[in-house]
Write a sequence for this structure.
């Protein structure tokens, strides 16, 4: 019987000695960095608060925050400082602008130093709905009217006018946020040409400051400009090299008929417009 007691005692001693060691090796350790958002979901215009903590603070080392949309495009990037106790927080992130257009799951990635990283996610619902419509523009000289089609996001087109003196089309906006307007401009209304008749670039001014269009498409009848604007912008002025002729097609036809009639009458009656010497 004693031959069986000794192995049992040995096994008991080994089990008591190994259990603490095993528990010590499998105990969870705190992460090197954490991150969280103040809400699980956001909509356009919301403020996003991102916070967390790092385990080991390195003096003068910033923390980088990146937010990627559902298509893995970067919509926000910033560098912030870390407090001496290791905590950090960014409370100035607005879910708005030209990049916040896709609804879905967004990813927040944070990096501290070259290797310490972590991430979290939130749901974003975009409420940007582009509005398509048209505006009737009337030329004050010839009284001709032109239809200008447009599509606008985050704003409203209040008025469109032409200025023959500056050879420009002026689009008045009510911009509720950063947005985009696409204008389909008839060439018969305003155009931009070089001296040899080739297409030239329009000059685009927003509230007096020159900005380049973000895109343009052309055909024989229209020039379509894509222009980005900021919240609060009011007037977009598109300057070309030629605008509506002073005489429209009907007025030109009437003028031509009148000239032909005068010539015919003068030839028949011998009427002279110049004195005979």
């Amino acid at each position: 019987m004693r031959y069986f007691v000794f192995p049992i005692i040995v096994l008991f001693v080994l089990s008591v000695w190994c259990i603490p060691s095993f528990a010590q090796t499998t105990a969870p350790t705190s992460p090197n960095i954490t991150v969280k958002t103040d809400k699980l979901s956001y909509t356009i215009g919301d403020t996003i608060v991102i916070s967390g903590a790092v385990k080991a603070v390195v003096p003068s080392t910033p923390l980088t925050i990146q937010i990627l949309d559902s298509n893995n495009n970067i919509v926000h990037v910033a560098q912030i400082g870390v407090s001496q106790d290791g905590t950090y927080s960014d409370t100035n992130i607005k879910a708005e602008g030209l990049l916040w257009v896709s609804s879905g799951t967004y990813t927040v990635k944070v990096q501290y130093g070259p290797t310490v990283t972590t991430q979290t996610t939130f749901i974003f619902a975009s409420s940007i709905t582009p509005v398509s419509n048209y505006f009737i523009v009337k030329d004050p000289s010839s009284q001709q009217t032109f239809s200008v089609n447009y599509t606008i996001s985050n704003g409203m087109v209040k008025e469109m006018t032409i200025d023959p003196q500056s050879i420009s089309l002026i689009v008045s906006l009510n911009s509720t946020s950063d947005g985009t307007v696409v204008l389909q401009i008839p060439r018969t209304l305003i155009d931009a040409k070089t001296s040899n008749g080739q297409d030239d670039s329009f000059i685009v001014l927003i509230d007096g400051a020159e900005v380049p269009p973000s895109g343009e498409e052309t055909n024989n009848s229209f020039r379509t400009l894509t222009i980005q604007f900021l919240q609060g912008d009011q007037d977009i002025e598109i300057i070309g090299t030629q605008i509506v002729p002073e005489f429209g097609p009907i007025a030109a036809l009437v003028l031509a008929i009148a000239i032909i009639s005068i010539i015919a009458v003068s030839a028949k009656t011998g009427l002279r417009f110049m004195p005979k010497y």
Remarks:
- The radius of gyration is 36 Å.
